[in-house]
Amino acid sequence: MASPEVDTVKPSKSSEGAQAVKVDTGEEWRRLSPIAIAYFTLRSIKNMAQGAIYAVPAIAVTANITDNIQSPNTLLSIAAILIIFFSSGVVSFFMYRFRVSNQHVEIHSGVFSRSYTNLPFWRIQNVKIELPFYYRPFGFALVILDTAGSAGEEAKIVAVPLVYAHALRKQVLAEHQEHGHQERETSANVNDSGHVNIRAHANNSSQACVEGDPSKRYSETNEDGETILNRRSITDIVIHGITNNRVWILLGAAAPFYDNAFGYLSEWLAEKGLQLNQLVGEQTIAWWQFGLYAFVMLMMAMAVVALISIGGALFTFYDYTLSRQDDRYIRRSGLLNKQEVSMRASRIQVISAKQDWLDRILKRVNLYFEQNASIGHSTNELMSPNRLIVPSVTEDEADELSQEVMPESKIRRSDYQSISKRYILHWVIAGLSIPFVVGAGFGIYIEHLDITAGVTFVSVLLLGVIALRWWRWGVASDDKYIYVRRGRIGVDYLCFEPYKVQQVVVKQSVFMKRRKLATVQFVLASGAISVPFLPEDYANELANNVLFEVESKRKSWM
Amino acid sequence: MTLGTENETFSNAQLNAITTNENTSASDIPQLYQLNLEAISPRYRVINISLAFCSAFVLIMVASALRYQSFFVLPDPLVIAYPFIVMGICVLGCLWTTYHFFADPLIKYALREQDLSLQSGLVFRSLSCQPILRVQHVELKRGPIARLAGLASLQVFSAGGATHTFEIPGIEVEVAERLRQFILNHKDVSAK
Predict the structure, then answer these.
(1) 3-state secondary structure A270-323
(2) If you measure CA to CA, which chain B residue comes closest to A550?
(3) In chain A, which residues have their Cβ closer than 8 Å to the Cβ of B114?
(4) Of the candidates A502, A507, A524, which has its C-beta nearest B125's C-beta?
(5) Nearest to residue A198, comparing CAs of A229, A227, A163, A166?
(6) Predicted pLDDT at A67
(7) Which of A53, A364, A421, A489 has the most CB within a 10 Å radius?
(8) Which residue stretches belong to region Disordered (chain A) (predicted)?
(9) Is A196 exposed, middle or buried (0-12, 13-18, 19+ CB in 10 A)?
(10) For residue A183, what are the contacts with CB-CB under 8 A and spacing of at least 6?
């Protein structure tokens, strides 16, 4: 069945793409490419798997009791289920129609509950193009049309040729631009090629963005006319895999195979002459031998975990690009499924630059742009639309990127106002003292001094962590931004614009008041940021200034 | 809306020092500690203390009913625990009452032209300030007991999320409604 054809005739007014793809499908309803059947089938399997996750124990028990996993009946029923899914995919495919005409996207979909979506171009906030791995060899794409920001209100055009997807996106975004900035658009020639038009826009906004820092320019653009801000090489992603625990990306997907994998692993170890059971069960070997074995095992386990983590990082971040189109930042990455997360610059509430201890050694930074936390859920940290991550950039790149988003910001600075030492005292008294006295006293009472020693050791460790936290925590501000530094062993730097604050809280206990200390908390749409045990005057001044900024600038936080 | 009329409207909830969007020097920035704080209704404390008494009483009654009923025999440990349970309930009830006795009069709020503030807490004092510009919606919450006492809570929601909902508890209904109206009429909210 015909998917929108690639039209090589002269570009009409509505198809201002360089590839000259006709976006408008006319009055006629279109059907998707047949590859969509694969998408629908997989989607219904996925939905069922998500729904049936609670039934897994029951099914497993039944399978165990009847013990007929290998029997023809089981295979038959699995085949039947697969056929049912496939036919539901086929039916969904036939029930799905769409057309793009007259600046509207219209979609008829659904089998039992039919739904009709009509989206005018100007209501579409964002167009995402995703490439599931089974689409990629055939050059198809999944187009996701985002409306006003709520996650449930997306419309999907399930399978269209990639060129068409790009052309559609270009046109929708161009329409969006025209709608939003009609007054700004003075001489841009609409009949001109879309490339030039969009690039003119990009330059406009880049001028607005990096005003005051003209030395820095990003010259590279991609085929959509977006300015490429950052790419991550495989080396970078491997570093990211080592410094960050991305184990769960792969382990989560591999969960059903754990049992088998463990079986193979112990078989393989047994072949190599290592008997796990023997090691644990019998006291035949010397303690240092056991220690050595344990050490070797630990090292091997760490190596395996690191490898899995690198795999996970590659899986999500392969071919990472961060680009900017007008006022929008877009990140694309993924090994099998290419995914896209985009964020309006004005929606970014906080930039956070996070460095773990290993990152500090390797001088790498994970940079996050965070927006409204109430949109969507925190199901998948890396793919969530609330956070845009730039993995393992160098410190200079982190500075450059944060200045791109928040011009003239300077997150690494020396004038952080540190918090009072009473923070340590507070946590020692409020948190540590009682467990320590109880634990240590109990050890002495029952005459097991090892318990006392253990409790003391843990308490000293915790004390060290508290002291580090005190040492890291600080706040600074300049004319435009507020900076917070915090962390324990690693360091996080946060930077936000005071006018985006939603609420300000100043907290003070009776004891803090006596010492003229106060905790200040800024509530942003992306979450609350607090700095404890600041000098009272400083905290009040900060709070007053921020409130004044919010109430006098009267700028939108979105 | 001019300031004068608001001042008249808010004889109860006094309108505080004004924040304007004129360019002022740093020394002119309105200060939080200069707020003219207004106490909430004294009936709020009465409600809380009587609630504490009532719930302690009900819990003790339930425990006693279980202890002295004749339908089934309680296991021995429970019978032994009974006086301790009653004592525990009494102690908790007393603590609850004492806390409200001292903490509730400290709950104070203030309204400025551009923001709402609330001070609360006995040992840990907090002063939170909610710019009206950032308000997304306002709700009046009235439970059955608060309705009897003619009180209401004013909840102000911002994009900061549910955990940071700004709430002024225990104010007279008229005041709450006037506050709500003030926020709704505020040009920053009504403009949306």
Answers:
(1) HHCCCCHHHHHHCCCCCHHHHHHHHHHHHHHHHHHHHHHHHHHHHHHHCCEEEE
(2) B131
(3) 547, 551
(4) A507
(5) A227
(6) 60
(7) A364
(8) 1-20
(9) middle
(10) none
Euclidean distance between CA atoms A496 and A546, whole angstroms? 11
The nearest alpha carbon in chain A to B126 belongs to A507
With tokens 């639309």, the residue in question is A385
What is the 8-class DSSP label of residue A430? Answer: I
Instruction: Give the length of chain A.
Output: 558
Q: Which of A214, A256, A234, A209 is nearest to A56 (CA)?
A: A256
Q: Which of the two residues, A65 and A398, has the higher pLDDT score?
A: A398
Q: Is the dihedral of CA A237, A397, A405, A545 positive or negative?
A: positive
Cα angle A148, B138, B101; round to 5 = 140
Locate the chain B residue with the closest alpha carbon to A543: B32
Record: contact A547-B164, CB cut-off 8 A: no
Nearest-angstrom CA–CA distance, B154 and B139:
6
Bridging pattern class, strands B108-111 and A140-146: unpaired
The DSSP output letter for A428 is I
If residue A544 lies in a helix (H) or strand (E), which one and from where to where? helix A536-553
Q: Is-contact A533 A420, C-beta < 8 A? A: yes
What residue spans of A96-233 are helical by DSSP H?
162-180, 194-209
- Quote the tokens at residue A306: 């690191």
Confidence band of A342 (pLDDT split at 50, 70, 90): confident
* Separation of alpha carbons A53 and A470, rounded Å: 44
DSSP B69: -
A543 touches chain B (CB under 8 A): yes
Distance of CA A454 to the CA centre of its chain: 39
**Rounded distance between C-alpha atoms, residue A120 and residue A43, angstroms:** 26
pLDDT of A464 over the 60 cut: yes
Kindly state the tokens that stand for A100.
């793009």
Q: Which of A 497-536 lie inside 8 A of B, CB atoms?
A: 501-510, 513, 523-525, 527-528
- Among A143-157, A393-407, B56-70, whose mean pLDDT is lowest? A143-157
Could you give the ipTM of this predicted complex? Answer: 0.83
Question: Which pLDDT band holds residue A8 (cuts at 50, 70, 90)?
Answer: very low
Angle at A508 between CA A505 and CA A514, to 5 degrees: 150
Q: Which amino acid is at A278?
A: Q
- Report, as an integer, the average pLDDT of A132-142: 86
> Using a CB-CB distance cutoff of 8 angstroms, which residues of chain B are in contact with residue A502?
130-131, 134, 158-160, 164
Closest CA to A470 of A515, A532, A538, A530: A532
